[in-house]
Amino acid sequence: TLYLTEDRTDGRFYRFTPDTLTGAGFADLSAGTLAVAQVIVEQGVNTVVWHDLPDPLGLARPTSRQVPWSTPFNGGEGIVAFGDRIAFTTKGDNRVWTYTVATQTLAITDDEASNANPILSGVDNIAVNFAGEYLVAEDNGDMQLVVLSPAGVVLPLLQLVGHDDSEITGPAFSPDGTRLYFSSQRGT
What we know:
By secondary structure, the protein is mostly beta strands. It is built from no helices and 14 strands. A 4-stranded antiparallel sheet has the order 1-2-3-4, with no helix packed on it. A 4-stranded antiparallel sheet has the order 5-6-7-8, with no helix packed on it. It has a 4-stranded antiparallel sheet with strand order 9-10-11-12, with no helix packed on it.
């Protein structure tokens, strides 16, 4: 199963389930079901209900408009999977979200607006390490790469100085997890 975000102010959260796997065990992307998320809030729990899209290619109507009760997300950006968790960022409201596949629940992992002293702002790309910690890159903000631990601790890992008109992009780990790579999109 693949999960996707949409970089629009009224973007959606999508799930693609392939019909088959390739001989090597990877998703065959040529055929499958594209579904859009609807978040239902009951007793403080955000439950995700998936709705199949009748026109997944968006030929007659954009995918974000095909299921009127689907939930909009403000500027979906980076997305990453770890175990049964899918984390993604929304830049329009400076939030980091975590979807738990097993329980089909969605939680706000970090929200700049609800923090008295927010460390993370301008959320953008996201990566995850072997410990399950999210590394969130800032677009604007303080030009930091910030760590969000599963326990809720938020710490700046690094900061780029002199890159005010740039953004940190592409955080990724080497396959063995010993090296972290990132770039400054418009840095010198």
